[in-house]
Amino acid sequence: MTSTADSAAGDVAVGDGPIVAVRDLARTYRGGVHALRGVSLDVPRGGKLGIVGESGSGKSTLVRLLAALDRPTAGTITFDGTRVDDRRDRDLGFLRRRLQIVFQDPMGSLDPRMRVRDIISEPLGRTRGRDERVAELLEAVDLPADAGGKHPHRFSGGQRQRISIARALAPRPDVLIADEAVSALDVLVRQQILDLLTRLVDEYALTLVFVSHDLGVVRKVCDEVAVMRRGEIVEQGPVDTVYDTPRHEYTRELIAAAPTLHGALSTAPPPTSVEPAQPES
Ligand SMILES: Nc1ncnc2c1ncn2[C@@H]1O[C@H](COP(=O)(O)OP(=O)(O)O)[C@@H](O)[C@H]1O
Ligand SMILES: [Mg+2]
After folding, report:
1. Percentages of the chain per state (helix, strand, coil), in multiples of 5
2. Could you tell me the distance, in angstroms and rounded to a whole number, from the CA of residue 127 to the centre of ligand 1?
3. Quick one: what percent of the chain has pLDDT higher than 70?
């Protein structure tokens, strides 16, 4: 397997070109909701791309299409040079490994009947060395080794998001998509999970697609940003450029309305209190 997760950060550009390329993507739901209308987007290999926009702008629809969990009404998606939008599910095994998603609501995405070790190793299938890999992943996300034997309800919201991250990393993906992954967390825990995510993305040289309605968080995490409104990308560029000199009126409105952006831009040091490492009993 050739995974950038196994190679040094400097090797990431070897496959050159964007790792995901989206062209003229449209998705119309039954009932005539035009969730996406003509989206074109390059995800830079090894980059941290933010996708911002208010609720209902089509961000999650785009994410589901990128992961081939849903099919476009029109347009194409290319992953590392291979068209994926027109492939049958059984031919998408490589995408299921190489692109992973962390969702907002861990309770919705973690099966409550499964033990954490089985949740984390599920994307691996029946491979040798599963137990060792689970132990490695628990350590990577700073969960105690005995967490594997417990069920998700034993953990706090932040810890459940650590479990989701561990599961996403299990198959050594190249691309990690976080769809509002920290939005449900309170401010201290949010910062810890963000720190963890960015540390792991750097350590494994992953490409990050960070989806959020929260412009402040995107500025802290991402190097590039795409702004969505009503199913379209109205503006894309380096975060500092877009935030400091927005070209589109909608971007200016979003920035003006962002309560957390001003906090994110202040020079206050980040919170230092630490989330308890032990599961709550
Ligand atoms: N499965 C679906 N069926 C019908 N409409 C949907 C479905 N999923 C999302 N929508 C609609 O598509 C639009 C975009 O939704 P979504 O992609 O979830 O936006 P966001 O993630 O930015 O909040 C919204 O109007 C939403 O109501
Ligand atoms: Mg969404």
Report:
1. 40, 20, 35
2. 37
3. 86
